[in-house]
Amino acid sequence: MTNINLKLKPRTDRDEAGPLSEAKAREGAGTLALAALLMKSLTIRHSIDPQEEGASEPCVDPTRLLPDWTQEEQRTLLERPLFSYASYGRVRFHHRSVLEFLAAERLQTLIRAGMSRRAVKRLLFARTAQGIAVVRPSLRPVAAWLSLHEPDVFKEVCQREPEHLICLGDPSSLSIEQREKALEAFVERNRHGTWRGHHVPRVQTQRFADPALGPAVRRLWDSGIANGEMREFLLELAATAPLAEMSGPAVEVFMDRAAPDEERLDALRVLIALKDPRLPEVTSAVAAEPARWSSRALRYAVIDLFPQHLFGDQLRSVLLALKPSKATVDAITWNWPELIQSAPLPAPAAIELREMLHKLTVETASWHNDAHRLMTTRPHLVPALAAACLKELSIGPPSEGWIDAAVAAVRLMSDREYDEDRPVGS
Questions:
Q1: What is the pLDDT at residue 54?
Q2: What is the pLDDT of residue 175?
Q3: Rounded CA separation 67/77 (Å)
Q4: Beta strand extents in 33-136 (DSSP E only)
Q5: What does DSSP assign to residue 60?
Q6: Range of weakest confidence among 8-12, 150-154, 226-230, 399-403
Q7: Which residues make beta-bridge pairs with 346?
């Protein structure tokens, strides 16, 4: 909202076509936004040019929507920073989210001015040919924004497609009671079956999460949910808030061999976010019996646990169990080197890490006649070795053995690591 106010302020970098107050500009922008969504046309006519009269693509005409505005006022509005160039003689809203928010705001203004709620519902909602009650696809974000202020719209969206109350709009503006209703409706609607494509963006999870949701999340978890997406979302909520009520289920999921990797990793993040006292025990279990987790789960566990919870002999045990990934980029070859360079490691810890990685990479190295160079069976650890060398160098003078480790990192690197932006290349 602040961004919209700023972009509707009078321009100071050049003269405007005519005076236009910020309040009137916002009202006009809302009218154009609602019309653009209803017409399914995101461009707005800026100039009335004879060449444009026969254009094949329809556009929003402000002269028809703002009949009581002068040409100068219309031009002033469309030349403010809220709009950007679209094509010859046309402009558009600078961001789709702004368009959707202003359209919802305009609908709210119309409701307060006397527009019947039945008319609003006919506008936002529909039934498919199969008789399924849905929110009109093009107006889903508008319905989500309007739900923040209109209980009737919130109730209708909650009954039809509750996921939009979480994935769209600003769920942080919902009350705790509304969030609980939306969450329960979302989970109940999708608790059975498998993947349905209802992944909630991380930023929306952060907005929706609140420690007060703990009892509701735990109640839903204990009710038994077959859909993996819903289980993952509840664990993500628990890690984001964080929710102390989910510490017990998190330990169970992380230690469960049958649980999918995504659920186990989300469960680990719950324990880390809660600073659970059982975390050292869990880390010891990973180091003692890494075969209970897949290589993919172990790779991300290293990222999440290093260096505060996983270091020294425990880290070495996990790295020994890791197998090289077939992917060009993975967590160990890409994310972990960056984490090593940014981690607050004291000099002794940095030296210990460098020595360990040096030994792990060199002990399996041998000359390959076909490749005409030295190769190791643990190439996924070479970027981390290079990062550890750089980390030690950034802390102070290199210790004994540093040059050998740095040379090993360069000699054992793969072709894809020969890049100035990667640890080996630098």
A1: 53
A2: 95
A3: 14
A4: 43-45, 83-87, 90-93, 125-127, 133-135
A5: B
A6: 8-12
A7: none
Q: Which two tokens stand for residue 292?
A: 């209970």
Residue 375 bridge partners (DSSP): 366
Share of the chain above pLDDT 70, in %: 94
Beta bridge partners of 135: 125
Q: Between the CA of residue 111 and those of 39, 152, 165, what are the distances in Å?
A: 20, 12, 20
Integer Rg of the chain from CA:
29
Q: Please, which residues have CB within 8 angstroms of residue 223's CB and are 6 or more apart in sequence?
A: 191
Residue 149: name the closest of 122, 170, 128 by CA. Answer: 170
pLDDT in tens, 288-341: 999 999 999 999 999 999 999 999 999 999 999 998 887 767 889 899 999 999
Omega before 242 within 30 of 0, i.e. cis = yes
Q: What is the rounded average pLDDT of the residues 243-247?
A: 96
End-to-end CA distance of the chain: 44
Closest CA to 355 of 403, 302, 320, 306: 403
For 135, the 3-state DSSP assignment is: strand
In one-letter notation, the amino acid at residue 203 is V
